[in-house]
């Protein structure tokens, strides 16, 4: 395992009948049973003959990943990396200042350990609705989004591209969850990946623009930090699909809810709720503990099956997926 990455597997009772593999530098480790197995392209499966790109894996496997602080780096050249919400500059100093004032008021409430979850949920809904209202009122344009991303201090975690390529090769669907803004996340992918991945869908707050590229509204229910769950699944749309699905029906959501084996990636304990809408039988939860290591270490070990420390790369996850595949050919 590379420096900065601590891997620990626990909760073995939840992974009954599991197969064992070895991670670099660690003893043999328990992972989910054969239902989670991967097959390399072109490798025939017993009784099924040669496989094409649609049958590389059993249909019950899915990856669910948070965006900010999980797919993106927490630190960049010694500076705190920006989030998909925080990088946005409307080109209107008055409204940028108003959104910053909202952050300074609500963020301490978000991280407060004394506010009951019901009350905090209402506060988060209030914060997001006010922020979205300011984006509309301040005349946000799609050109401003592109400019904001190009000038932002944001970068994908090392190894993310390799992970996406591997999952695409294996035919594994990926849901990227975020309480941020889908249009910004997709623009980050455009500028940083330089290609699209058909197996990746974004679940986030999606904007509606008029013919002149001006923001006029938001689509569907607001997604904030405390409700990234089964209701948000219905908002999943393919990357680069500007308009989503009509009439509220989302075939990808229906298929995702049927998946029973999940690899979940997040940087907050609350991200574990991202799989609430799936009736999974097995889940491997990978947590990225980017800062406040001593304070949060135990809670992360209690919550996640695997924990990486200190803004680690994504290459450990690539190795995990590769070993699961290699061990089950």
Mean pLDDT: 76
CATH architecture of the largest domain, please?
3-Layer(aba) Sandwich
Number of domains: 2
CATH class of the largest domain: Alpha Beta
Number of strands: 12
Structural class: alpha/beta
In the predicted model, the low-confidence regions spanning at least 5 consecutive residues are 1-59, 240-251
- Please state the overall shape, judged from the principal axes of the Cα atoms: globular
Reported for the largest beta sheet, the result is: 8 strands, mixed
Rg over CA atoms? 20 Å
Distinct helical segment count: 9
Give the full name of the CATH homologous superfamily of the largest domain. HAD superfamily/HAD-like
CATH topology of the largest domain: Rossmann fold
Strand content: 15-25%
- N→C terminal distance: 23 Å
The SSE order reads: EEEEEHHHHEHEEHEHEEHEH
* Approximate helicity band: 25-40%
Gist of the model:
It contains 9 helices and 12 strands. The chain is an alpha/beta fold and 329 residues long. It folds into 2 domains: 12-76 and 155-208 and 219-326, 3-Layer(aba) Sandwich (Rossmann fold), CATH 3.40.50; 82-151, DNA polymerase, domain 1, CATH 1.10.150.340.
